[in-house]
Amino acid sequence: MTATTDVKVLVPGDRDMVALLGRRDELLKLVEAAFAARIVVRGNEITISGPHGEAERVGLLFEELLSLLDAGQELNASAVGRSIQLIKGDRARPSEVLADVVLSNRGRGISPKTLGQKEYVDAMRRSTITFAIGPAGTGKTYLAVATAVRALQAKEVSRIILDELVYGRVLPESVARLQAVAMRLQAHGAQALVLGCTELPLALNDANTPIPTLDSTRLLARAALRRAIET
Asked: pTM, whole model, 2 decimals?
């Protein structure tokens, strides 16, 4: 028989329990469904019963959710779901990721939503140049622009350069600059160029560079199509 442990979390008296547990306990139900533990709420005291490791994780989760509320974050199903994933992953606390506000405006903040996004933001903060590789829609450009605006506001940079590639058009001088970069990379031993940015193939291709190019968007599309055909 597996030994059980009771973990108690005392919510401060001035904290709105609905903000923590959700209307009709909808957020509490998400937590209950995610862990093999029994959760009992009486007043402002939460008691978690279950296997030692599981009960401790749920207790830590509620403490982290309280920290997010203290940081001004609003809890919803998405935020609680991401917090559960982070707690189960045991690599970072939700308050370290979700409460890291990159940029705020009119009371609304932009923050990482995953550990990978948090690591990406941290890399941009400590590095002059940061390379990010990932599928479209994973927040690469969004977080990069937010980080750049924050740096501009803090006077860490004097201006933000938005290249015409963003607007789907390419000027000849921009192509020439990128070709010069390709030539320097070739001189340093590069055998191919990985065009990791979605817009780069608008300017570079095998016909105008000294070394082969690898269009990551096309490669992903071909792989997805091949997988679809095979299944």
From this structure: 0.68
Q: Tokens 């001189």 map to which residue? A: 187
Q: Are 3 and 49 in contact (CB under 8 A)?
A: no
Beta-carbon contacts of 94 under 8 Å, excluding residues fewer than 6 positions away, are 61, 64, 65, 67, 68, 82, 83, 86, 87
- Rounded CA separation 98/109 (Å): 10
> Going along 166-217, which residue ranges are E strands?
193-195, 213-215
Please report how many Cα atoms fall inside a 13 Å half-sphere around the Cα of residue 6, on the Cβ side: 6
- Do 149 and 180 meet the contact criterion of CB atoms below 8 Å apart? no
pLDDT digits (tens, 9 = 90+) for 56-94: 999 999 999 999 999 988 999 999 999 999 999 988 899
**Whole-angstrom distance, CA of residue 231 vs CA of residue 228:** 5
